[in-house]
Every structure is written in structure tokens, then in C-alpha cells.
């Protein structure tokens, strides 16, 4: 309804007087003199000086006022419809497992970003090894296949399935064998799916072969005990450990689990109780384990058997022929045997050899020592390495004979890691249909007819059983990112089974694993594992004919004895080469040589001199009819006349980061007595050219400085303060600065030099947590690696009972075999009087009220003065835009791989300084969590990434203001000293003296 | 200045015959008022090529990042700060000559101060480029100044020597520029008065309306004195503050209280050497032999000898204190300089800076132009090595041996250094082309007191005793600008 009401403002309007009409024409009641101002006369008027100043003053004032606004805050808008259980900014943790270790996967907004040990697990539950921490990067690896392939061309899964099934049918019809060649498979699900395939195709067989074979131990145990297994070792129960060439803290079997156990008898808690184990190592190359030994004797690979025979003789009082004639070894063996015999039941001998006879002799010794049971557990045995070299030989023979119709390769890459790749190629040529489950077209997969790329463990359902009775679950934490399918699902499809893999795993667990445990499926998804084994094994006695074993050892040793002997070894970092495309691992320095991005020939400096080699030299290493050229590392501690070369390098088809890094040394191995042997007679001669290795540390001794303080166990027992030499005990210090109160928290750290083995998994954990870029070989050569945390490794060279650490004195040394090593984790010390803070012109690095040295990346303009003035040299500068510069494209320069970045930590641009932040994001996260739960922060709520990765518990972090915190207790230890405390920078990280349990003369 | 008769015992500061005020102006403005000669063009082209190299090297660094240099996690400063300190040090001689010598009424400064001050300004420009170029994020260089900003309460760190440095260098540059420009005003006015057309207009703008009235001259004198007063402390303070970049740190080899005097002496040492390098060429090419005489050359050589000796004593003191301190890090730092991987740099420094200036004890050497010129270059090579030794050998092996590393320069490092020399000479040659290289007005002051012509006249008038005249005659022997005829003229009595 239209309103016909009219409103008027006054009588003038109502009456519409002419005056009103006239005045209402304009917008304003009174006309504005625009015309007057804008006419010629108006424009040409001179602005009076006062008006000008007024206008200027007003303008300036207005602009100033307007500029006083703070920069506006832009709020991010979170999910409009929030997925269940995903809260932006809050990580979710899922229990899973990697290589049989129960782990927790941290995901943020649906993407996995890091992996930590499951603290409640059985076995290894504090810390992870470097490959485990780094494995999260493999999920985002762009070198992986994105689709299944036949003949090198992408196909649909349906097409692949029909091709595979046709081939299987054809093989079955022809009565030919169907073989699955894999590395060790201990997953009940995988084994069940293989069994399912075998039900449909009865000619199916499964062969396990490992790149690094432990067949010698398995066979020796079959002979000695009738159990063809590798035992579990519990070093926590061993007070005396003798290792003959076993890198048992590193790559030998379950190195990280051994570390966790071994350190329990050597760390600050054990020392506090007056206890420390003794570790004696006989080996040729300086391994990480050897670097941690109390006594280390350099022997040749061919002497390993002789040392064990002599040891057996000493322990039992027998006189079996073939004992070692090496004088240094003889002395050590006498003492070691006495120690071992005195500690019966708490003593163990391990040997790294893969020779059946040698391992049989070790079994005999360990039986004498009563090690079976508490230390060596044959009941709850390890299932990590079940490969059989003989079975693989058998497969090659069968295949060559044309009897294999189909061969599947699962986690197996023999063309790269079998010593005779030609043999494998010849055998494969005779197989009708070959397929690999590799996630990339690797050396073997690229030679095969089809590839069915498997999803990574982070995208798959599955399980593992690394130890008898221990079952761990693998849960997916993200949907498959590429068009991949997990192996088990593929096998089920080909077996004609349409069960989804989730159902299959669940049913398999419910039928075969869970009964009797009182747990249900959901419990497992939460806890991640179930253990059905016993806590200790029972006692066993080895049945060994020592005389015949010893004579076989003597005979076989002759085969490798020579003027020069080669020892191939699995490096702690690169392992057997399967992780070669992981840039984090490539840039992780070797624990001993500190070399990154390459393998090398380790040679004693004196021996190198004899060969006419120096730094940056190259050698040709020739063994078993094969030869490779390698750069040289002058390695103190290396036995004269030996050369050590790491396996796992020289991949050619692994991906962008790992291709052509180092040289493949597998071809230098050989088969003796049915097992692959890594030692050989060799020839070494100088090669032409030079090669600069990328080392993160190039000066190897401490020059007599007191930055490392070490004592012996005997001295420690007399006085726990021994050699800790705290400056503050003998000097009064003065302060130029006002003391700032830190009433809330005061974050500090204690590092136990006796616990740190130098493995470096903390470095990788730090890289992953803090988005630290990998810079590549050339930049490491230029000494620009970005690691916030490094492990300094120092040698002390002993000659004729005198210890040398000074460059000039070492130049005159003749014998480089006797060397002691210390590993010192070095990171920002968060000094109370930080020299970096006073010199920064723009206050980009400042101290927090919680005792931390902060770095404000946004404020830094890169004068690098702070780094120069840092006495610990822990600051790292972004020389380039490493994470987004194609010249440093090791892994991160694509949008996909950048998903691995931790969203809690910003990436740093070029020209900015960075350094350890004490995982400030974790501290803040912990504080927030406590606040949400309305409680105080508890000790242990916040763990550093490095600390969480350390299986030796060498890094203890916490609040110094809480006198009951673990770190406060640790820092009250008598062994604590502070590095460079005499320059009064007041570091917040305390180190505990290195204690060596040496033989007292 | 003074109109009294100067003692005959003093050596003449201006030589040559028939020198009038007009002739002085003609002589000095010759290069400004005429087309440049071949020598200038050759020098200029070479210098511009160098400057282009500088542009390319700095441009490449800005484009890719500081990683283009050879620096690493251990050695965070090397050629950049070495070059910076080197250039700042060179600048010091100009200020010393223009300010300190003015206050001390050293008239001989009058003919060299202009070029020396120009050198100061160009050297400080070169130095300032490193301040910006060495930054990781040079586009934020203005953060060094405490500017109001809208980021919150962000301020600079007044504890940091780099902040002091920014103030010191900017103050130094400003004062030097003002001092130099004020001194130029009467000379620019001379050029203006003799020029025509556009040139006249331009010089007229730059002469700031100089009228030449008594009042103008009086104010000119006052301003010069005030600025000299302000500049004098800067001679000491700038390099003191530069030295504090090192002295306030904890790095062995840097953490030294001797640095301020040692750096100042070194700066004057290198600055005079650079003045010598430039002037010896300049006087020859531009025919300034009568204005920049052997007396100047010898005086500067004496200063080089004295400051070189101070520097030498400082080096030895450092060694003694390192030993006496009992600090193993300090001792190692110096043992490492002497016999470590960079020993060659240390011994190059020792030879060039300590031994070579001692040659100036010999009069023959300090009055020999070619040897003086070579030694002046040797001294600057030595001073470059001094900074390199202090910076690189201290950093490359400090506390923790695990981090010890070597520094190897890249082409960019070399390019920026060589390029900065090109930049310097480009500016210097342009200066010679457009502005008088000698302070005309100030030299004119000497004509009626300290010139050979005036002294000869007085001698001929019999104003001095004969034995003094004999002494004077002897002292003229070293002058390359004094002829036999000139000396004989002293025997004539009117």
C-alpha cells in the first residue's frame, strides 16, 4: 500500500515559497566559493608563508598520526568444516612401526611430519636410528613412481593386474616356479598374503636374501643349537663386552637397541652407582662401536678368527692351534680373557664375521661365559635378518635353468647389492615374467618387465615382528599420495582375494596374534604393539667341535690374508643403500670420518704415506677380480695394510639425490662357504687425480685444549670430580652485566659424553623438526652445512704410552693404530652472557626470560657478526635460499616435498642467521598444553627433538628452576663441566666428563 | 695568512719561476679547463672497466646471495671486512692532512689537502659499499639506524660496535664531505669566473654564490677552522670504533685492548701511502711538480716511516702480550698466525708494513720518486694483509678445533675488491677532470712567504746571512723541480 503521507521541514517547503525554491537549488544552503578560488585570479594568489606552514604542519601531523597505527594483524581462517580429529595447529600421533620398531608418527593437518620412538614399546623405546627419523622424507620423495609400469610405461592397475595374473596362470600351467625374492620379511600379514598366493599357485616359493647377510650366524646356530635363528642380545646385562669386528652399536643387527641397553651400564646413572661396563673391541677399520670402546686393538680382517681362537684358549686354558701372533692383540686378549672369565654370566663376546665357523667358535666362547639366557636370548630371537645366501644361489641356478616362470622382487635389489650383478641379470633373462614392488625404478626394477610400486609404510596397513613374540602394527597416516598400492593388497588381488587390506590385517591379527593376549584390535591401534614372548631367554649350551671349527677358520683366514686386506662394511648412516635417495641421510656425516655424500677408502695415514697418498688422493682398490676408484680418508686407528670401504653407495637409479653418490662396493664381496663375505685379499694403489671429500670436520684433534675432559673409571671411583676441572671451583668470576631474573622456567641441558656414541640420529631429528635445509656436497665442501646440532669427534693418538692431540706433534708420529675417540654433541649453548647477543646491531638475537638465546629471523639482516663472535661456532648462515634455489635442489625444491616441513617452524630466507632454538616450538606447545589442562608444566612434558631421537639418553633437557627435574639432578653430577666456561659466557649446557674403563697399568 | 718573512732555513713549498697568482690559477686549472689528455683517457677507461667489474660482482652477489663469496660457517667475514677496513683506513690520511695539519699550521698541507680529502671521500664511499654489500639482506640496511618505525618497539642495539660503526662512518663521511666542499668553494668560483656558457652556469650553482668579498673569506676561514676542530677527533674516533668491531669480541686475536691506537696508526700509515701513490702520479701527469714538491714527498715518507714503526711495535706488543697472557687460545692464535696455514699472509704483512718503511731512514730512498712510489704500494699491500690476517686467521681457528676451516676466495670476492679500486679511481679521475686537484686559494697563500721565488728574492736582497743561504742551497739539491739555474740565482746579490 502506497503511503500518501507527505513530510515537510517547514512552512516554506509546504508553501513552496520562491525564496525556498531558489535556496533549495544548490546542495548547500550557502554557495561555496569554488568558482572564486579556481578562477585565474584565485589560482595566481600567492600562498602566504603562514598558510603554507599551516598546511605543511597539518599535513605532516596528519600523516604522522596515521602512521602511528600498528601493522594490521591478518587472522588466518581455519577450516570452515573441520575434519573430525584434525585441529589446525595440533598434531595427531599414530602408533605405527618402521623396520619392526614401534614408533609414533606425528601428523599435522593430515600429513606425517616426524617419527619418534614409542616410549611404551618393548625393546628400543627411547630413540630411533637415523634412517627411522629420516624415513618421513621418503614419503614425499619425487623420485618415486607415480603409477604402475609395464615395460617402462605407465599403465592402470587393472592392466597390470591382468598381465600379472595371465603370467601367473601361464607359469602355473607350465608347471614353472613362481618365486618371490625379498629381503627379510617378518610381517605376519605379508607372509599370510604370500601364503594366500601360494594357495592359488602351488608352485609359489618365497626366498629371503639380505644385502648384508647374517647367514653365518643363522647357520652356526643351526649347527650349535639346532635353532636356525639370530638371537636377541641384551647388552644391559653385560658388564664385559668383547667385540671382534662387530659394529654392534651401529649397523650390526639392531644397533640402536644395543645402544640403549649398552649405555645403561655406562651412563651417568650407572656411574653414580659406581658401575661401568668394560668394552674391548678388535677390528680393522675404526667403526662407531670401536670409537666407543674402552680398549681398541687394530687387527687385520684375516686375524679375526685367530683372535677368537686365542681368546677361546685363554678362557678355557686349551691350546688349540691358530691363535693370533699379533703382539698387541695377545696382550689385550690375556687381559680380556681374565675380565670375561671373572664376569661369567655378565660377559659376552660378539663377532661381526659372517663366517659359519667363526660364529660357531663365538657360540662356544659364549657358552663358556654363560652368556646364553640373560644376555643372548635364543628364545625371543631376532627376526630382522632371515636371509639365506644359499637360497638365493639356488634361485639363480633354478632361474638359469629356465624353471622359473614368474619372479617378484620385494624390497630386493640384487642387481645393485648382489656381488655378482651379471649373474643375476643372466638368471633374470631366463625368467618369463619379472616384476618388482619397488617404489621407484631402481637398478633391478628398471630391468624387469613390470613394476607394481608399493606404498610407503606411512600409507599402508601392515605389521612387523622383529623379534619372536613381538608384533607391531603399521597404520597408514595419509592416503597414498601417488597411484601406488601396497604389496600385500597386490598379492591378494593376484591371489583372487578381494578382501581389503585393512580387513585382512585386522582379521589376521584377530585370528592369529591377538588370541591369548587379552587385547582387542583397537588396543593395538592405540598401543602399537603386543608382546607375547618372555622377558629373558633360557640357558643354552653350544654343541661345537672347536678343533675342527678352528682349523676351518685358520684355512679360510688364509684366503683373505694378504699384504693388503679389504674390509667392506655397512655404514651406520647409509646402511645397505636402500635409503640412498634420502638427502637427510646423505648429508649426515659419518660418525667417525665426518664425511658426507660419498664413500671412500679408509687407510691408515702411515700406510697412505707408503702408498704415496695424501689428503684428497685417490686409490684403486682391487679385490676378487673387481676394482673401484675411491677417494682416500686418512683414518687414524685403521690397521696398517688394510682398507675399509662402506657399502650402500654408488646407486645409479635411486633418484635425484642419491644417484652416483660414491661408488658401489658390493661387487668386491665374495661367496665363501656359502655365505657372502665382506673381507678379501686386495690390492691398493694410487690412482690418478684428486678428489675432495665433503667433510663437516677437517681438524680432528683437540690440540690439548680442555674442551673435552676425560678420566678413567678407576680415577672416577676414587673421586667422581676427577678431571672435571670446573673453572668456577678455582676461580672467582665477575660480571659486567646486570643479572636478569628468570623466575619462571630456565631451560638447560645436560649432555653425557659417556653416553653419546656419535651415531647422529639426533642430527637428523633436528633437521626434520626444524626444517633445516640439506645443502649438498659442494656446499658441505665449502663448509656450509646447516646442521644446528653437530657431533664433534676428536682423536687422541697414542704412541709408546704418550697421548698426542697437537697437530705439530702428530706430524712426527709413526704408529696411528692406537687411537681413542670422543664424541661431543655441540649445539647452541644458550649462554647467559651470550657473545652473539651483544654484537647484533639490530637486536635480532636476544635472551629470553627463560634462559634461551632467541633468534628473530625477520629482524636479522645478516651481518654474521654473531656467528663470528660465537666461541662454539654453532650459528649457521643461509648463504643462499637453500629451500628454493634450483642449484641446491637435493630434495626440497618442489611443492610436494615441501609438505614434509614442520608447520610450527618457519623456513629461513637467504641472508638470515639461524641456530638451535632449543625446539622453542615444542616448549611453547608443552606450555600451552599444560595451560589448557590447567596444570603446571611437568618435567618430561617437553622433549627436544634430538633428545627424543637419542637411544643412549645422552641428552637431558629440562627446567633448572625445578630442583627435582631430571636435568637438575644430572647437572648436580660431579662430572659436569661447561665448555669454555673460563671465558665467562656462562653456557647453559653442561657436559659430563668422558670416563674410560681402561686397564690400569 | 702570514706576510712576515719566513726563515730561509725552511725549505720552499712552491718552486718555479715567474709564479704569479694568475699563473697558479692557470697551472692548476689546466686539466679542468681543457680537454683531457691521452693519459687521462687510458686511466679512466681502465678505471671504468674496474668499476664495471665491481658492478657485476656486487650485482651477482645481490642476485644470488652472500654464498657467492668464499665465506663459510667458521669464517663469516673475510675479504669483505678486510676491504672495508682497508678503505676506511686509507681515508684517514685525508682528514689528518686537512684537519690536524691545519690546526698545527702546517702550511705544506695546502698543496696536497684537496686531493687527499677527495681520496678520503672516495675511499669512504668504497668502504661504505662493503657495509651494505656484506649484509645477508642488504635491502634492509637502513635498519642499522634507530629510525622510528611501525613494527612495534624495534630499536637498534647500542651495545653493538656495528651500530657505533654506522654512526662513526656516516658522521665521518658527512663531515669530510662538508669540509672538502667548503674548501672547494673559492676554487669552484675561480672556475666559474673563467668559464662561459653552460659550464659557467653549472659551476655557478656549485659555487654557492661565492663573491670573494672580505666577509666571505673571513667566514670561510672560520668555517674551515671549526670543521677542522670537528674533524680532528674523528681522525682518532673512526678507526678506534672500527677496531672495536674486533676488540669487543671474544675471539682470540680480536679480543685485544691495543687495537684502537694500533688501528689509528695503521690507518694513517696506509692513508699517507695512498696519498703518496696518487700524488706522485698526479704531479707528473698534471705538471704539478712546482706545487707538490720533494719536500712534500719527503715529509709524507717520514710520516709513513713513523706510523709504520708504531704499527711494527704494535705487532710485537701483540705477540708479547699473547705469550704473557698465559691464555692458551690467545697463544695459539698468534702461533697460528706466525706458523699456521696463513703464515704467508702474516709474513707478507710483516715484510710490507714493518720492514719496508724502515728503508725511509735513508734520505736517498725517501727522496727517490720511483722507490717512494713502489714502497707506497707495498705499504698498502701490507696493510691489506694486516686486516686479512687479523680477520681470517683469527676466525679460521678459534676455540673449538672441530670447526676450524680454511677460507678460499671466489671470483666474486676478488672482483669486488679489484672493482672497488676501479670505482675509486673512476671517481678520482672524474674529480681531477672537473675540480681543481690542488687548493688554488690556499696555494696562493704560500706564494708570498714560502715559495722559492720569494725566498730567492729575499736572498738576493740580502735578507739572510750567507751561511743560512748555503744551508738553504744544499737543501734544494733533492728537488727535482729546482734547476741548477734556480740555485745559482741564490748567489746573486742585488
TrEMBL record, chain A:
It comes from the Bacteria. Gene3D superfamilies: 2.40.40.20, 3.30.70.20, 3.40.50.740, Dimethylsulfoxide Reductase, domain 2 (3.40.228.10), Formate dehydrogenase/DMSO reductase (3.30.2070.10). InterPro entries: 4Fe4S_Fe-S-bd, Asp_de-COase-like_dom_sf, TAT_var_transloc_signal_dom. Pfam families: Fer4_11 (PF13247). Residues 747-777 form the 4Fe-4S ferredoxin-type domain. This is Molybdopterin oxidoreductase.
TrEMBL record, chain B:
This is Hydrogenase. It is a multi-pass membrane protein. It is found in: Cell membrane. Keywords: Cell membrane, Membrane, Transmembrane, Transmembrane helix. The keyword Cell membrane applies. InterPro entries: NrfD-like. The chain crosses the membrane at residues 39-64, 84-104, 116-142, 162-184, 222-242, 262-282, 303-324, 344-362, 374-395, 415-435. Its main location: membrane. Belongs to the NrfD family. It comes from Sphingobacterium pedocola.
Amino acid at each position: 500500500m502506497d503511503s500518501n503521507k507527505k513530510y515537510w521541514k517547514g512552512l516554506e517547503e509546504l508553501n513552496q515559497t520562491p525564496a525556498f525554491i531558489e535556496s533549495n537549488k544548490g546542495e548547500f544552503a550557502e554557495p561555496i566559493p569554488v568558482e572564486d578560488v579556481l578562477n585565474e585570479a584565485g589560482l595566481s594568489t600567492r600562498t602566504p608563508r603562514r598558510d603554507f606552514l599551516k598546511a605543511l604542519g597539518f599535513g605532516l601531523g596528519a600523516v604522522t598520526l596515521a602512521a602511528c597505527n600498528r601493522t594490521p594483524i591478518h587472522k588466518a581462517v581455519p577450516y570452515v568444516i573441520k575434519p573430525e580429529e584434525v585441529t589446525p595447529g595440533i598434531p595427531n600421533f599414530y602408533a605405527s612401526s618402521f623396520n619392526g620398531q614401534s614408533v609414533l608418527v606425528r601428523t599435522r593437518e593430515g600429513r606425517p611430519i616426524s617419527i619418534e620412538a614409542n616410549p611404551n614399546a618393548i625393546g628400543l623405546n627411547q630413540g630411533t636410528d637415523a634412517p627411522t627419523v629420516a624415513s618421513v622424507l621418503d614419503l614425499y620423495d619425487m623420485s618415486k613412481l607415480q603409477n604402475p609400469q609395464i615395460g617402462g610405461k605407465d599403465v592402470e592397475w587393472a592392466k597390470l593386474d591382468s598381465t600379472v595374473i595371465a603370467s601367473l596362470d601361464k607359469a602355473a600351467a607350465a608347471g614353472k616356479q613362481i618365486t618371490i625374492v625379498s629381503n627379510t620379511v617378518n610381517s605376519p600379514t605379508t607372509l599370510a598374503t604370500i601364503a594366500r598366493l601360494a594357495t592359488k599357485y602351488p608352485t609359489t616359493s618365497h626366498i629371503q636374501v639380505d644385502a648384508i647377510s647374517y647367514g653365518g650366524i643363522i647357520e652356526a646356530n643351526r649347527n650349535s643349537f639346532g635353532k636356525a635363528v639370530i638371537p636377541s642380545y641384551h647388552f644391559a646385562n653385560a658388564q664385559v663386552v668383547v667385540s671382534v669386528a662387530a659394529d654392534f652399536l651401529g649397523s650390526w643387527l639392531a644397533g640402536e637397541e644395543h645402544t640403549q641397553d649398552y649405555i645403561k651400564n655406562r651412563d651417568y646413572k650407572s656411574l653414580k652407582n659406581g658401575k661401568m661396563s668394560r668394552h674391548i673391541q678388535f677390528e680393522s677399520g675404526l667403526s662407531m662401536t670401536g670409537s666407543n670402546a674402552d680398549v681398541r686393538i687394530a687387527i687385520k680382517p684375516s686375524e679375526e678368527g685367530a683372535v677368537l681362537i686365542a681368546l677361546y684358549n685363554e678362557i678355557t686354558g686349551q691350546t688349540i692351534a691358530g691363535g693370533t701372533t699379533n703382539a698387541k692383540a695377545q696382550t689385550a686378549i690375556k687381559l680380556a680373557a681374565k675380565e670375561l672369565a671373572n664376569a661369567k654370566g655378565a660377559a659376552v663376546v660378539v663377532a661381526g664375521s659372517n663366517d659359519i665357523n667363526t660364529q660357531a667358535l663365538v657360540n662356544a666362547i659364549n657358552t663358556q661365559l654363560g652368556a646364553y639366557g640373560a644376555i643372548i636370548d635364543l628364545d625371543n630371537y631376532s627376526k630382522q635378518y632371515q636371509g639365506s645366501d644359499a637360497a638365493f644361489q639356488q634361485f639363480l641356478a633354478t632361474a638359469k635353468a629356465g624353471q622359473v616362470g614368474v619372479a617378484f622382487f620385494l624390497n630386493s635389489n640384487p642387481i645393485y647389492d648382489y656381488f655378482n650383478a651379471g649373474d643375476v641379470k643372466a638368471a633374470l633373462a631366463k625368467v618369463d615374467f619379472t616384476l618388482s614392488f619397488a617404489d621407484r625404478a631402481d637398478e633391478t626394477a628398471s630391468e624387469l618387465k613390470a613394476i607394481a610400486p608399493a606404498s610407503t609404510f606411512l600409507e599402508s596397513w601392515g605389521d612387523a615382528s622383529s623379534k619372536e613374540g613381538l608384533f607391531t602394527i603399521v597404520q597408514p597416516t595419509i592416503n597414498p599420495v601417488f597411484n601406488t598400492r601396497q604389496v600385500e593388497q597386490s598379492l591378494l588381488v593376484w591371489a583372487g582375494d578381494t578382501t581389503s587390506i585393512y580387513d585382512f590385517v585386522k582379521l589376521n591379527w584377530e585370528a592369529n596374534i591377538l588370541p591369548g593376549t587379552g587385547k582387542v584390535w583397537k588396543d593395538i591401534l592405540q598401543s602399537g604393539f603386543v608382546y607375547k614372548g618372555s622377558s629373558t631367554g633360557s640357558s643354552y649350551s653350544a654343541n661345537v667341535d672347536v678343533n675342527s671349527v678352528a682349523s676351518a677358520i685358520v684355512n679360510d683366514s688364509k684366503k683373505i690374508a694378504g699384504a693388503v686386506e679389504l674390509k667392506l662394511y655397512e655404514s651406520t648412516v647409509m646402511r645397505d643403500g636402500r635409503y640412498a635417495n634420502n638427502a637427510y641421510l646423505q648429508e649426515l656425516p659419518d660418525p667417525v670420518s665426518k664425511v658426507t655424500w660419498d664413500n671412500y677408502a679408509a687407510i691408515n695415514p702411515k700406510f697412505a704415506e707408503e702408498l704415496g697418498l695424501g689428503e684428497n688422493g685417490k686409490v684403486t682398490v682391487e679385490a676378487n677380480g673387481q676394482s673401484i676408484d675411491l677417494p682416500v680418508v686418512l683414518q687414524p686407528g685403521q690397521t696398517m695394510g688394510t682398507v675399509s670401504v662402506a657399502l650402500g653407495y654408488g646407486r645409479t637409479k635411486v633418484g635425484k639425490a642419491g644417484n652416483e653418490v660414491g661408488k658401489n662396493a658390493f661387487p668386491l664381496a665374495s661367496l665363501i662357504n656359502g655365505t657372502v663375505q665382506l673381507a678379501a685379499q686386495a690390492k691398493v694403489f694410487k690412482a690418478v687425480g684428486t678428489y675432495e671429500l665433503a667433510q663437516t670436520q677437517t681438524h680432528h684433534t683437540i690440540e690439548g685444549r680442555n674442551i673435552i675432559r676425560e678420566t678413567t673409571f678407576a680415577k672416577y671411583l676414587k673421586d667422581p670430580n676427577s678431571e672435571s676441572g670446573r673453572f668456577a671451583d678455582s676461580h672467582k668470576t665477575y660480571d659486567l652485566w646486570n643479572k636478569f631474573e628468570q623466575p619462571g622456567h630456565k631451560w638447560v641441558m645436560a649432555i653425557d659424553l659417556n653416553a653419546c656414541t656419535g651415531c647422529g640420529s639426533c642430527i637428523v631429528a633436528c633437521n626434520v623438526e626444524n626444517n633445516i635445509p640439506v645443502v649438498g656436497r659442494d656446499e658441505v665442501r665449502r663448509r656450509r652445512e646447516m646442521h644446528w646440532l653437530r657431533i664433534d669427534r676428536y682423536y687422541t693418538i697414542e704412541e709408546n704410552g704418550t697421548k698426542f692431540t697437537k697437530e705439530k706433534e702428530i706430524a712426527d708420529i709413526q704408529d696411528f693404530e692406537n687411537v681413542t675417540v670422543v664424541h661431543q654433541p655441540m649445539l647452541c649453548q644458550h649462554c647467559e652472557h651470550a657473545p652473539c647477543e651483544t654484537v647484533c646491531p639490530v637486536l635480532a638475537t636476544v635472551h629470553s626470560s627463560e634462559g634461551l638465546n632467541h633468534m628473530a629471523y625477520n629482524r636479522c639482516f645478516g651481518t654474521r657478526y654473531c656467528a663470528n663472535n660465537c666461541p662454539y661456532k654453532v650459528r649457521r648462515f643461509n648463504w643462499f635460499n637453500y629451500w628454493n634455489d634450483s642449484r641446491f635442489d637435493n630434495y626440497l625444491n618442489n611443492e610436494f616435498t615441501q609438505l614434509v616441513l614442520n608447520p610450527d617452524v618457519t623456513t629461513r630466507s637467504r641472508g638470515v642467521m639461524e641456530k638451535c632454538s632449543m625446539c622453542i616450538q615444542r616448549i611453547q606447545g608443552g606450555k600451552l598444553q599444560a595451560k589448557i589442562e590447567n596444570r603446571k608444566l611437568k618435567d618430561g612434558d617437553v622433549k627436544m627433538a634430538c633428545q627424543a631421537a637419542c637411544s643412549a639418553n645422552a641428552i637431558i633437557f629440562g627446567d633448572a628452576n625445578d630442583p627435582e627435574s631430571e636435568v637438575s639432578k644430572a647437572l648436580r653430577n660431579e662430572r659436569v663441566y661447561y665448555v669454555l666456561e673460563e671465558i665467562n659466557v656462562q653456557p647453559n649446557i653442561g657436559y659430563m666428563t668422558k670416563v674410560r674403563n681402561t686397564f690400569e697399568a | 695568512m702570514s706576510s712576515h718573512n719566513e726563515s730561509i732555513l725552511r725549505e720552499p713549498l712552491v718552486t718555479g719561476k715567474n709564479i704569479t697568482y694568475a699563473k697558479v690559477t692557470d697551472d692548476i686549472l689546466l686539466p679542468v679547463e681543457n680537454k683531457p689528455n691521452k693519459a687521462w683517457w687510458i686511466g679512466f677507461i681502465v678505471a671504468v672497466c674496474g668499476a664495471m667489474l665491481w658492478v657485476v660482482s656486487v650485482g651477482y652477489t645481490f642476485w644470488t646471495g652472500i654464498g657467492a663469496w668464499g665465506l663459510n660457517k667458521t669464517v663469516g667475514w673475510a675479504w669483505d671486512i678486510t676491504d672495508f677496513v682497508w678503505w676506511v683506513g686509507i681515508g684517514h690520511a685525508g682528514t689528518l692532512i686537512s684537519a690536524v695539519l691545519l690546526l698545527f699550521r702546517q702550511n705544506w698541507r695546502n698543496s696536497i689537502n684537496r686531493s687527499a680529502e677527495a681520496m678520503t671521500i672516495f675511499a669512504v664511499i668504497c668502504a661504505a659499499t662493503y657495509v651494505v654489500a656484506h649484509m645477508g639482506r642488504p635491502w634492509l640496511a637502513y635498519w642499522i639506524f634507530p629510525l622510528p618505525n611501525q613494527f612495534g618497539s624495534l630499536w637498534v642495539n647500542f651495545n653493538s660496535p656495528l651500530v657505533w660503526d654506522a654512526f662513526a662512518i656516516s658522521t665521518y663521511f658527512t663531515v669530510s664531505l662538508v669540509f672538502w666542499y667548503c674548501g672547494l668553494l673559492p676554487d669552484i668560483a675561480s672556475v666559474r669566473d673563467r668559464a662561459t656558457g653552460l659550464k659557467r652556469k653549472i659551476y655557478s650553482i656549485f659555487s654557492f654564490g661565492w663573491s670573494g668579498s672580505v666577509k666571505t673569506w673571513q667566514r670561510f676561514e672560520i668555517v674551515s677552522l671549526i670543521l677542522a676542530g670537528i674533524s680532528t677527533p674523528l681522525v682518532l674516533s673512526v678507526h678506534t670504533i672500527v677496531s672495536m668491531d674486533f676488540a669487543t669480541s671474544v675471539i682470540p686475536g680480536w679480543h685485544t685492548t691495543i687495537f684502537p691506537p694500533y688501528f689509528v696508526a695503521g690507518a694513517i700509515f696506509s692513508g699517507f701511502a695512498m696519498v703518496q701513490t696518487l700524488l706522485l702520479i698526479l704531479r707528473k701527469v698534471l705538471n704539478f711538480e712546482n706545487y707538490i714538491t720533494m719536500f712534500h714527498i719527503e715529509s709524507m715518507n717520514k710520516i709513513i716511516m713513523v706510523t709504520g714503526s708504531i704499527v711494527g711495535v704494535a705487532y710485537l706488543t701483540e705477540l708479547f702480550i699473547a705469550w704473557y697472557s698465559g691464555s692458551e687460545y690467545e697463544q695459539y692464535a698468534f702461533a697460528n698466525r706466525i706458523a699456521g696455514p696463513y703464515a704467508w699472509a702474516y709474513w707478507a704483512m710483516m715484510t710490507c708494513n714493518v720492514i719496508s718503511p724502515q728503508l725511509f731512514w735513508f734520505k736517498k730512498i725517501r727522496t727517490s720518486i720511483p722507490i717512494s712510489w713502489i714502497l707506497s704500494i707495498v705499504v698498502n699491500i701490507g696493510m691489506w694483509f694486516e686486516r686479512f690476517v687479523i680477520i681470517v686467521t683469527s676466525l679460521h681457528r678459534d676455540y673449538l678445533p672441530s670447526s676450524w676451516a680454511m677460507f678460499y676466495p671466489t671470483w666474486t670476492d676478488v672482483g669486488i675488491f679489484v672493482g672497488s679500486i676501479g670505482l675509486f679511481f673512476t671517481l678520482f679521475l672524474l674529480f681531477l677532470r672537473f675540480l681543481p686537484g690542488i687548493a688554488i686559494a690556499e696555494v696562493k697563500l704560500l706564494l708570498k712567504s714560502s715559495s722559492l721565488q720569494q725566498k730567492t728574492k729575499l736572498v738576493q736582497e740580502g735578507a739572510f746571512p750567507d751561511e743560512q743561504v748555503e744551508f738553504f742551497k744544499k737543501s734544494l739539491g733533492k728537488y727535482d723541480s729546482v734547476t741548477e739555474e734556480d740555485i745559482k740565482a741564490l748567489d746573486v746579490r742585488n
